[in-house]
Model the fold of this input.
Amino acid sequence: MKYISLIGATGSIGQQTLDVLGNNPEAFCLVAVAAGRNISAVRTLLANFTPELICVQEASDAAQLASEYPDHTFVSGSEGLRAVATYEKAEVLVNAVVGSVGLEPTLAAIAAKKTIALANKETLVTAGHLVMAAAREHDVAILPVDSEHAAIYQCLQGEQTKNIAKLVLTASGGSFRDRTRAELADVTVAEALNHPNWSMGAKITIDSATMMNKGLEVIEAHWLFDIAYDDIEVLMHRESIIHSMVEFCDTSVMAQLGTPDMRMPIQYALTYPDRLPLQGAKRLSLAEAGQLHFGPADFERYPCLALAYRAGREKGTLPTVMNAANEAAVALFLADKITFLDIEKLIAMAMDEHQTIPHPDLETIANIDQQTRQRVQVLAEQLQN
Ligand code: MG
Done:
């Protein structure tokens, strides 16, 4: 029996994590969980699981739930989030929150020696140098939940880093992959949220459409696998069947394949190095797929990908600026305040005016993150005028 704590329980990855846990009650026990403001989802969760500690965002919601469920302990806010991330009984923390808010609980859980199943890519993007150093210091494993990184992790079993020639991250191209740049000018939020292959949350689905998601994943791969940006390639692959690949120094290429189902990388991070059958999953039939398609990544069609390589290579605070600007811009797009193409414009503007600070500490990262979000609001208003 493995004891699990989960933060970001009501999001897409969180819900699919609960599905994996619920399907394997003999293997996993959910002991602590954090959700945001979706209280009805917390009530549904408590009908199926018996976590000892539950965190919600608002203190008033925690008090309300405590009166309904006297057998559980409820906490709230960032302190509550940290309590769930470091809950003593838990061996593994599944970090499924969206955005840079996932950073602090990750560092706290590493210091408490929890194994980290990491779906929160913004954590490594903004503070990869701090997170990986802390993981080494406390001898903690960071197991990737992102499908591409889980694929690479599987391809690297029994291999040595020194023999890697390059990592190849596959990209579906997102919801607008068949449109030209000119056709992107007036796309709607609903169109952007319609991903061809994967069922995911709103923020990551927009990130897939801009390819910022792949850019964040390039930076994530750099930190997780300690590979230079020149040796990380993005390959367009519209079927999302090859989840990523590793090329070795002898030209041998290892790939991991499967049907697009996020529960597979989630479950693998929880069972690693063991595996369990994945309930209700569709098996891959290459005969049925017939053909797989590949092409080079187009940095002019997807400027966010170029911005991410630039931020990753420069390091310091620039990835934080890029990530915070992206989070703020995507939120504005989802609220119908800016156009789809304004997202990349705002990120580039925020990056262009930033003076990069090398080797930032946690406080500097948090400050730059906040400043960038505020700056993007101002820049967005300027764009409208
Ligand atoms: Mg991914």
